[in-house]
């Protein structure tokens, strides 16, 4: 049981580590267009991301899929940039008559979160495999690490939605301004990660 909690803590620390902030940026980009009153939509969105990265985290850790690590490290900030850019065009209609449009908007965002989750899962697996080494029994560490990731992810979501609540509901700031500022910061930071990516530099030579 001690081993389980060790890997659970490692998963939590990995996604919340400010030094490896790429995954944090992605979760922030996912939540930037929502308020705390829309927590159900956020929960579904995060669940879609969770399903995606859980699949590839398991497959990659069990050596059932293989890929170029350098390519994944480039794709992760690209997924962050795309998510942040889509926030600039996101519209949440308040009209009941446009419920079909709202459903359509949510569906493609859920699909995007699932797809990008597959990519992030391969990034998570790189770290987990380095921890496991040649350890024979990896199912329990894999489960514990994944749960730790989810707890950390929910902490980040909670912090972002709480900050949005303070600014939007208490201080009455502009929701559009909040979305644009947060998404703009995330887009800028992810673009910096892409530009400074060594694999991209090699490709452009």
TrEMBL record:
Membrane-crossing segments per the record? 20-36, 43-65, 71-90, 110-131, 151-171, 178-195
Where in this chain does the entry annotate a coiled-coil region? none
Show the InterPro entries listed in the entry: Put_HupE_UreJ
Q: Which domain of life is it from?
A: Bacteria
A single Pfam family it belongs to is HupE_UreJ_2
Would the keyword Hydrolase be found if you checked this record's keyword annotation?
Answer: no
What keywords appear on the UniProt entry? Answer: Membrane, Transmembrane, Transmembrane helix
Its name, as the record gives it, is HupE / UreJ protein
From which organism does this entry originate? Spirosoma endophyticum
């Amino acid at each position: 049981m001690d081993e389980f909690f060790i890997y659970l803590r490692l998963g939590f620390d990995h996604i919340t580590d400010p030094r490896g902030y790429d995954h944090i940026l992605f979760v922030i980009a996912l939540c930037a267009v929502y308020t705390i009153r829309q927590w159900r939509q956020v929960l579904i969105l995060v669940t879609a991301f969770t399903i995606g990265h859980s699949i590839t985290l398991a497959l990659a850790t069990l050596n059932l899929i293989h890929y170029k690590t350098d390519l994944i490290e480039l794709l992760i900030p690209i997924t962050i940039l795309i998510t942040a850019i889509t926030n600039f065009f996101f519209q949440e209609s308040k009209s009941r008559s446009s419920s079909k449009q709202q459903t359509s908007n949510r569906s493609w965002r859920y699909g995007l979160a699932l797809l990008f989750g597959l990519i992030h899962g391969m990034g998570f697996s790189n770290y987990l495999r380095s921890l496991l080494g040649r350890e024979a029994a990896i199912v329990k560490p894999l489960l514990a690490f994944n749960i730790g990731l989810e707890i950390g992810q929910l902490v980040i979501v909670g912090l972002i939605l709480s900050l949005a609540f303070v600014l939007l509901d208490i201080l009455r700031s502009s929701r559009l301004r909040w979305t644009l500022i947060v998404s703009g910061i995330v887009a800028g930071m992810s673009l910096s990660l892409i530009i400074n990516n060594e694999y991209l530099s090699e490709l452009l030579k």
